[in-house]
Amino acid sequence: MVADGAEDHSRQLYTPELLAACQRLPKVELHAHLNGSVRPETIRAILDERSAAGEALPVTPQQMAELGPGGGRSLAECFRLFDIIHAVTTTHAAISRIAQEVVADFAADRVVYLELRTTPKARPEYGMTKESYVIAVLDGIDAALAALAAHPRGPQPQLLPAHPHPQPHPQPQPHANPNGVGPGPGPQPAPDASGSSQGPEDQAEAAGPEAAGSRRGGVASPSREALAAASAELSVSPPGTAPATCLQEPRPGEKQPPAAQPQATREHGSGTGPAGDGAEGGAAVGGGGGDGDGRGGGAWPPIAVKLLLSIDRREDAAAALETVQLAARLAPRGVVGVDLSGNPVVGAWAAWAPALAEARRLGLRVTLHAGEVPAPAEVAAMLAFRPDRLGHCCCLDAGLGSELRASAIPLELCLTSNVLTQSVPSYPEHHFAELYAAGHPVVLCTDDSGVFGTTLSREYAIAAAAFNLSIADLQELARRSVGYVFAGEEEEAALREAVERGLAGNV
Ligand SMILES: [Zn+2]
Predict the structure, then answer these.
(1) CA triplet 101, 106, 109: central angle to 5 degrees?
(2) Is residue 291 part of a domain?
(3) CA distances in angstroms from 505 to 24, 154, 289, 294, 501, listed in the order given
(4) Is the N or the C terminus of the chain less surrounded, counting Cβ atoms within 10 Å?
(5) What is the residue range of 389's domain?
C-alpha cells in the first residue's frame, strides 16, 4: 500500500511462481532477531489477554490495532511495533510462546537450520533475570522442536501475496519528524488497514516533539531516542542517518558467475569450547526426520535451531561480559555464539571488545552488526577483530569495502530490512549485487521477519528478481550458506547432506 505519489520500486518484483519455488528450497537462516520475528497477531493476542485480565499495560490493544498489516506497514509503524513488542514481552510465558511460534514459522517456510538471536533482558520489575529470559527462550524453542518432531510434516508454507512490500522513497524529506531523524516519506498506512488516513509523519507531529521518543502516554514516536530505547532487538538503522551510499558502485541486475567462494572462517571456537560440540544437543536437534517429501530426509529434523545472545550496544563492559558468560553456561542447550547489535549510533567498540574476545576464548562464535551507519573507525576495528560473521555492512567506504572482501568474512545480508530502513536506497542498488558478483561469502537473511512482514523465501525471491538470479543460483546460495553456520562440524556436515537431499528433491 503506497500513498499516491510515493515511489514503489518493488511492486511486482517477483511472481507467485518464483516465490513458490523459493519456498520449496531448503534454506538456512543466520540473522533473525527473536522479537523482530514475532507474529504481530500474537502480540495482539497477548495484549488482549493481559488487558482483559485488568493489567495496566504501556500500550493498548487499540494502539496495536492501528498498525497496518505487514505487507503495507510503514517504517514508522515498524518502529512502533518494536516498542509494543518490548512492552509486552515481560513474562516468561510470553517469551516462550513467541520463541515457539517463531521456530514454527521458519520451519513452515522450509528453513532447515535457524540461528535465532536475542538480547538477554533483566527486568526485575517482572521477576526476570537475563538468565531466566534466555531459559524461557530455550524452553520455547524446545517446545517447537518437540511439536515438529511429533508432526514431522510440519505446517505448510504460508503463502504471501505476490507483490512485495512498498519501500520508502530513497530521498528522505527534511520534515520527517520534529527531531529530524524520522521515517521520511515512506509508504503511508493504508486507510482500510489502519482505520485512519493519518500518516506516520502526521502521527509524529501530533504527538509533539516532547512526546517523540518518550514512552509517556504510550508508544513512542519514531526518533533516534525511540530507536535507542526500543530494544536491543532493534537492529535497524535510524532512518535518515544512513546515506544512500554503500559498498562501492553496485551494478544493478548484473549477473556474473560468482568466483569460487572462500571457505567460511572457522578459526575461532569451533569445537574448542562449550559452544562447540555441546551445540549438538539441547535445542539443536528436534528429532523427527525425513518424511519423504524432500524436507531434508535422513536423520535431519524438520529444523535445527541454535541461539545467539546479543550484546546491546547500550551495555557497558561488565554487562557485555555477563551476556558472554551466560552464553557459555547455556551452550549445552544450543547457545553457540554472541552478537553485537542495537542502535548503531550508541556506544563504543572499546566497551565490548574485551567481552567479545572472552567469547572467542570460551569457544563461542561471534557475529557483529557492522556498518549500519557510516562509522569507519568502528568498522575497521571490527574487521581487525576478525569475527566469524558480519551483518549488514551497508555503509562502507571503498577502502573498508576492499578490506571486507579481502577478509572473506561471511556477510549476513537482509534486503527488505535494509531497504525499508533506508540503509540502502533500493533493492537493485543493494550491495548484495557487488559482493555476490565478487564471490564474497554472503547469506540472505530476514533480520526482523515479523516486523517487516517478510520471510526468508521472500528474500530469496527478491534477490532473484533484483539481481537476475536463476533458481540454480538460489540453490547455490542456499548450499553455500551451510558453510557459514555456527553449529559444530559434525552437525554442519549433516546439515550439508540434508540440504543436498532437499535440493535434489526439488530440481
Ligand atoms: Zn539485525
Answers:
(1) 130
(2) no
(3) 9, 17, 15, 5, 6
(4) C
(5) 10-152+302-505
Establish if 39 belongs to a structural domain: yes
487 lies in some domain: yes
Ligand 1 centre to CA of 372 (Å) is: 10
Whether 83 maps to a domain, the answer reads yes
Between 103-117, 210-224, 488-502, the lowest mean confidence (pLDDT) is in: 210-224
Give the C-alpha distances (Å, rounded to integers) separating 267 from 201, 386, 389, 456. Answer: 47, 9, 12, 28
> What is this structure's pTM?
0.75
What would the mean pLDDT of 345-364 be, rounded to a whole number?
Answer: 97
CA distance 321 to 130: 12
CA of 155 to the centre of ligand 1 (A): 26
**Number of separate domains in the chain:** 1
Compute CA distances 308 → 59, 69, 190, 336, whole Å: 29, 29, 36, 6
H/E stretch holding 31 reads strand 27-33
Which has more pLDDT, 78 or 238? 78
Q: What CATH number should be reported for the domain holding residue 88?
A: 3.20.20.140
Catalytic, out of 115, 372, 378, 459: 372
Ligand 1 centre from 445 Cα, in Å? 9
How many whole angstroms from 413 Cα to the centroid of ligand 1?
Answer: 9
Q: How far apart are CA 92 and CA 137, in angstroms?
A: 8
**Res. 223: pLDDT tops 90:** no
